[in-house]
Amino acid sequence: MNARPGALRMALLGAECTGKTTLASRLHRTLSEQGWCVHRVDEVLRDWCVRNGRTPGANEQEPIALEQTARGLASGCHDILVSDTTALMTAIYSELHFGDPSLTRNAVEALRSFDLILLLAPDIPWVADGLQRDGPQQRSRFHARLCEVLEDHQLPHDLVQGQGTERMARALEQVESALRNRLAPVVAHREPNAPVGSQAVRPPGG
Question: Are 18 and 139 in contact (CB under 8 A)?
Fold first, then answer.
């Protein structure tokens, strides 16, 4: 992968209708406006459903998971990578819907390449979204299984909760903290009492 030294890789995880795509877009825009070179990895499943006009079957899950991982590894030069979901989402879907846990191991290993994992809580209203949405009960079930997998495999993650701007602010706090830790040799530290969303953590040369 052609990332700059010290590049931060972050993954957004969450059940359906937890705001992953919205948050990925807002983080991409905000961090880019701060001067970072940001690459966003979009969700393969969403593209697949739009292209085929249906949800994938059991034998179509693995190619989707592999493509999701490949997209993150094929990205260009950047300071920050924002991945709108990872192969783990496909793996858990395959497990819950088709009784096939075979994709989980590789998905977990791929997730270990990320520096920051943001787990979005199912605390916002559920909204129907065409082919990809199963319902609020399935959302709760998926979230519980996702938490279980992260804990079982000791994958550090930060829970992002809240509505609207609060959700974005909490996510941005975690990103800024990760940037300070990841890029400490080349970025300035946040000023005392600086508001969330300011250029408290600046890109190299910014």
Answer: yes
Per-residue pLDDT tens over the stretch 80-111: 999 999 999 999 999 999 999 999 999 999 99
The DSSP symbol for 3 reads P
Q: Any residues with CB less than 8 A from the CB of 25 and at least 6 apart, and which?
A: 40
CA distance 199 to 30: 10
CA 49-158-17 angle, 5° bins = 30
In angstroms, the Cα distances linking 87 to 18, 27, 45, 145, 162 are 17, 20, 10, 15, 25
Scanning the structure block, which residue is given the tokens 């899950």? 61
The alpha carbon of 195 is separated from its chain's Cα centroid by a whole number of angstroms, namely 24
Give the DSSP H/E element, type plus range, for residue 13: strand 8-13
Closest CA to 147 of 108, 119, 171, 175: 119
**What structural domains and CATH numbers belong to the chain?**
8-182 (3.40.50.300)
- Give the tens place of pLDDT for each residue, 104-144: 999 999 999 999 999 999 998 877 665 555 667 788 999 99
> What is this structure's pTM?
0.84
Tokens of 165: 């701007």
